Amino acid sequence: MSRPTGRVLTLLELLQSGGTRTVAELADRLGVDGRTVRRYVGQLLDLDVPVESVRGRYGGYRLAPGYRLPPLMLSDDEALAVLLGLVAGRRTGLTTTERAANETASAKIRRVLPRHLARRLDTLMEALDFTDRPGEFDTPDTEVLLTLADAVRHRRPVSVRYTDRDGRRSERTLHAYGIVAHGGRWYVTGQDARIGEDRTFRLDRIADARTLPGSFEAPAGPGPAQRVLSGFATAEYRHEVTLRIQGTAEQIRARLPAGVATLEEHEREAGATERWLRVELRAERLDWLPPVLASLDRPFVIERPDELRALVTALATRLAASARRA
To answer: Within the chain, what is the greatest distance between any pair of CA atoms?
Structure first.
């Protein structure tokens, strides 16, 4: 490839990265003068690449928005970032139901990589390991995800067909505040217009989504992520647990995050100097909680349920017995 042709392709790569590039900036990056930059721009225009000229003090050149360039050019670092992102998305479940799209996208990028970079990438993937194991996640439909995203952005009501965890199906009108990725799943949070209350729905349980006429105002207060976490902590479960734990919010959150428990200040008794927090959570099972409380290594009081008190006592007995073994 001749040097002028290589510089034209480098110019195209710079413009692909977005924004308006000044003539001085492009000349510096290409190692040429301003007149040569303009000649290279003319060659791109001859190839039907829509380069726009921006006038003014901060003017320069940019690509017309929305145009799909035939050669998508990525630097070595960009190609590696995209491929690693695809690997991470596949492992964590943050993909759509079009799972093959992840693999075909990876294959397309790998196919056009220079040999030296492909070899280095293969070496990295062979050396790379993960502490977590890839799980099987129920992923959302692509069209549902994009429809909800559009409804969030434009504050439009959306009709969804939803199946809850008990298999009950319903059609709801949702004022969606935001989409949240958490724990390998996608969620949408918003107001259920029929009952006028905030709800959080798993996207993989939404079979269809249709944008409706009208608009709504998003409420002030916590953002979508905090609403989802608060919804988890207050959801209906078999056991309701109330504790008092001596310590700071940071110490408690290290073992009981916002998606699991709610915290509030506990009124101190007269003369007391220690800080206690009231902790409330709901759970289908209690057997995981005694080890968590033990790992906190903070004084605590169980207010309810009695079943948890019995489980903590049993764990303490087993630990004491193990400690006495020779």
So the answer is: 85
- Count CB atoms within 10 A of the CB of residue 44: 18
Over the stretch 236-246, which tens digit does the pLDDT of each residue have?
A: 678 889 999 99
Residue type at position 163: T
The angle subtended at Cα 228 by Cα 225 and Cα 233, nearest 5°, is 125
Q: For the whole prediction, is pTM greater than 0.85?
A: no
d(CA 99, CA 203): 15
Confidence of residue 87 (pLDDT cuts 50, 70, 90): confident
Q: What is the 3-state secondary structure of the chain?
A: CCHHHHHHHHHHHHHHCCCCECHHHHHHHHCCCHHHHHHHHHHHHHCCCCEEEECCCCCEEEECCCCCCCCCCCCHHHHHHHHHHHHHHHHHCCCCCCHHHHHHHHHHHHHCCCHHHHHHHHHHHHHCCCCCCCCCCCCCCHHHHHHHHHHHHHCCCEEEEEECCCCCEEEEEEEEEEEEEECCEEEEEEEECCCCEEEEEEHHHEEEEEECCCCCCCCCCCCHHHHHHHHHHCCCCCEEEEEEEECCHHHHHCCCCCCCEEEEECCCCCCCCCCEEEEEEEECCCCCHHHHHHHHCCCEEEEECHHHHHHHHHHHHHHHHHHHCC
